[in-house]
Amino acid sequence: MLPQEIIRTKRDGKRLTTQEIDDFVGGLTSGAVADAQAGAFAMAVYLQGMDVEECVALTRAMTASGTQLRWDLPGPVVDKHSTGGVGDTVSLMLGPMVAACGGFVPMISGRGLGHTGGTYDKFESIPGYVATPTMEVFREVVASVGVSIIGQTSDLAPADKRLYGVRDVTATVESIPLITASILSKKLAAGLDALAMDVKFGNGAFMSTVPDARALAESITSVAGGAGMPTNALLTDMDQPLASAAGNALEMAYAIDYLTGARREPRMHEVVLALCAEMLVLGRLAATTDEARSRLEAVLTSGEAAERFGRMVAAMGGPADLVDAPWAHLERSPIQVPVIAPSSGVVTAIDTRAVGLAVVVLGGGRTRPQDDVDHAVGLTDLAALGAPVGPDRPLCVVHARSEDAAAAAAARIAAAYTVGDDAPAPTEPVRERITAG
């Protein structure tokens, strides 16, 4: 194999064969392909694209580059993946809910990226929770509880890890074929029977427009189907934070409130139910989404979903009473400051990306991969689009380590919100449903 010839073929807009793709991915894994060549390949794909067959071949090759899990369980193995947003706490509730309905959810999550929060970081906010267990522990918890949520492991799709690291510094992250292969190679390596995709659009999403989000969703569902993993995708709105909380421990407490019924905000509830329902239908645990939603509401009402969450946390090393007493274990920040709007009115627009970056400024996210995360900081009581704000109703409450950090975050929040007299027309949080068929 000559990597430069494979790069030349794609650079010139020609189609790569499955063998050429297998050879190049093999070189990524073995080190035979240099970083410069990996970057050139990524740029060639970014500029020239790939057809579905090429993308399926790339996905399969990266899947085969490492460990591939196999399951022998009395029910379907299903999962969900989100393209990332602000206040996107869905995974924390979704896994236990689907498990309570008979599914098995081996969720391998990521750290925060840019302005978006990471599920991995949220679980690390729980004292004692081992977010990077051995594969044996992971398997045992999935089998006994029905769900285990852990961080990414180097065993799965190592070729993707290598290529992603190069893409991150070569301005090729946004390539739809490369995004597709990156997501699906890890999910296929996890041994899934089916996948539900949550593709975000809006000013807080990596895909800012509906057409861009739709193109990514169509690519993922088509390639996943071609690789033998049935996948449906929902396009969901990220023109405002999904939850009224953003920050690791704060979102964990929010998720527990949701599962116990202490608080279920309508937008979040709709997105959670919609994605869970797709998983139940794809896993043949329900014939229709309506039937699936009824089952999901039942496990919330009965407390079984909350009980599964608690069992998972305990099995992964966390406190057994986290669901009953979250703030006995989760860390609180010492300073809490309300952010008052400069004028009274209603929220007419939110720069959602800026809200996410306010959490990063507080220390709740990373500016460099090696940075530590402060799990206690973040935002609560975030005002939604159309909500009245004024002296008695702040834009949000900032949770910070210092007065200076709180002031810096408050300034960013004040700039991120637009307040006027007329509320915008309400929109549904789930815009479209995309299937391979």
TrEMBL record:
Family indicated by similarity: Belongs to the thymidine/pyrimidine-nucleoside phosphorylase family.
InterPro entries linked: Glycosyl_Trfase_fam3, Glycosyl_Trfase_fam3_N_dom, Glycosyl_Trfase_fam3_N_dom_sf, Nuc_phospho_transferase, PYNP-like_C_sf, PYNP_C, Pyrmidine_PPas_bac/euk, Pyrmidine_PPase_CS
Pfam families in the record: Glycos_trans_3N (PF02885), Glycos_transf_3 (PF00591), PYNP_C (PF07831)
One Gene Ontology CC term in the entry: cytosol
Subunit structure: Homodimer.
Residue ranges of domain Pyrimidine nucleoside phosphorylase C-terminal in the record: 346-420
Protein's UniProt name: Unannotated protein
Organism for this UniProt entry: freshwater metagenome
NCBIfam families for the chain: PRK05820.1, T_phosphoryl, Y_phosphoryl
